[in-house]
Amino acid sequence: MSILVVDIGTSGVRSAIVRPDATIAVEFREEVLPDTPAPGLVEFDATRMATAALTTARAALAESGPVDAVGIANQRASTIVWDRTTGEPVAPGLGWQDLRTLGDCLVFQADGLRFAPNQSATKIKHLLDNADPDRSRNLCVGTVDSWIVWTLTEGAAHVTDASNA
After folding, report:
1. 3-state secondary structure the chain
2. For residue range 77-88, what is the model confidence (pLDDT) as tens digits?
3. Which of 61, 80, 87, 92 has the highest Cβ tally under 10 A?
4. How much is the pTM?
């Protein structure tokens, strides 16, 4: 059983075909660096990330042929909000290292709730508060894995793995 593995890391995207004996048949990589607009802020271009995933996956499949399964490894708490109709991100994605929600985390902590800025919950709140304060838009939220699956399936699947949820 050959597997296409798409690894969306902090500095790039790579796709590899892993053979049944766990060796790598082919591997392609594209650099996708985050932006740091100010100290403590880490953003990324979600469209660029998805394009790199698609480009490297296509290249790996073109060289190796069909596979039996696909696996996605990603930056678990990095978060994206996109428009369900257009499929376009409504803002830059927020990296797991982004600290802009630290103040919210401290407020929640004072109320006895434990959140950390490297979790996706407060990132989702921040992105929605800025992109859709009255919650009237038809938006999707997700971590990088759900964004990549949404993009690769052209909006047919909005899913995540339990380890990312």
Report:
1. CCEEEEEECCCEEEEEEECCCCCEEEEEEEECCCECCCCCCCEECHHHHHHHHHHHHHHHHHHHCCCCEEEEECCCCCEEEEECCCCCECCCEECCCCCCCHHHHHHHHHCCCCCCCCCHHHHHHHHHHHHCCCCCCCEEEEEHHHHHHHHHCCCCCCCCCCCCC
2. 999 999 999 999
3. 80
4. 0.91
